[in-house]
Write a structure and sequence with these properties.
Helix content is about 35%, strand content about 20%. By secondary structure, it is α/β, with parallel strands linked by helices. β8, α4 and β9 form a beta-alpha-beta unit. InterPro entries: DapB_C, DapB_N, DHDPR_bac, Dihydrodipicolinate_Rdtase_pln, NAD(P)-bd_dom_sf.
Length: about 300
């Protein structure tokens, strides 16, 4: 078990005292994405509870976020910690930025306890994830992509695929995506865009995605700025006609994590509103958040 030494994290922006009726637990807060969410959430005036869940290596760690201490608990006592915290903070929203291998187990825990949650972690068995949440009737925002502008692009792609199926029949699709070396799985965003291209008629398998995780290649071939090698998301899609006389290129590049953190805060505020209204629909995605139209 890790020692209880306090790790200090200073926030880049001052905390504004609003939305402080909403309590959040950010699981995976020792990671870079979790830290970015905590910073954005505290800047928006949300209230992080003093505990969070993490992996075995993080158990016992105490983080200090601008004077707010958060103790990380490991797998052994996670159910009791979550249950007691939800009892103490009945308005609690859990945020999950853990690891792909933990997605289904974590979701099952949140559903068992009955706590609403926002999950931006990619990977896992997504069909099982949705079934688990649907069966439990717990409120949740589930999205592999939390960046609002990227989600708007995805929505446009889905509309095109729905209205013009087969428009790119016979076209050859090439996909390249670059993320920081620590990202283990194929981008959930890439999977969603590929699904749209498949509906549009392009033949493509996920195994054909060119994953770029080598920092040298990311700088030299992809064009990632060196300062963002530890946190970026570059996606490139190229469609070529069978006779190679026509080509289309789609590209969206993100440096840093702020776009995802800010989107996550919007998802938290959105979900808290749905819980308060006792909304009939209980499973949402970021397109639902976008359509609400009241993002910050």
């Amino acid at each position: 078990m890790a020692s209880n030494s306090v790790q200090s994290v200073e926030l880049a922006h001052p905390v504004e005292p609003r939305n402080d009726g909403i309590s959040i637990m950010v699981n995976g807060c020792t990671g870079k994405m979790g830290r970015a969410v905590l910073e954005a959430a505290m800047s928006a005036g949300l209230n992080p509870v003093p505990v969070a869940l993490g992996g075995p290596d993080d158990a016992g760690k105490i983080l200090d976020f601008n004077g707010k201490q958060i103790e990380v608990h490991g797998p052994s006592d996670r159910e009791s910690i979550l249950s007691s915290t939800f009892k103490d903070y009945p308005d609690l929203i859990v945020v999950d930025y853990t690891v792909p291998a933990a997605v289904n187990e974590n979701a099952a825990l949140y559903c068992k306890v009955g706590v609403p949650f926002v999950i931006g972690t990619t990977g896992g068995d997504r069909d099982l994830l949705y079934k688990t949440v649907a069966d439990s009737k717990v409120y949740a925002v589930i999205s592999p992509q939390m960046g609002k502008q990227v989600v708007a692009f995805l929505a446009a792609m889905e509309i095109m695929a729905e209205q013009f199926p087969g428009a790119f029949s016979g076209y050859n699709l090439q996909v390249m995506e670059s993320h920081q070396a620590g990202k283990l799985d194929i981008s959930g965003t890439a999977k969603a865009v590929i699904s749209c291209f498949q509906k549009l008629g392009a033949s493509f398998e996920l195994e054909q995605v060119q994953l770029i995780r080598d920092p040298n290649l990311q700088v030299e071939m992809v064009g990632v700025p060196e300062e963002y090698l530890s946190g970026h998301a570059f996606h490139m899609y190229n469609l070529t006609s069978p006779d190679e006389t026509v080509s289309f290129e789609f590209q969206h590049n993100v440096c840093g994590r702020s776009i995802y953190a800010e989107g996550t805060v919007d998802a938290i505020l959105f979900l808290a509103k749905k819980v308060k209204l006792n909304a009939e629909k209980r499973i949402f995605d970021m397109i639902d958040v976008l359509r609400e139209g009241n993002m910050r």
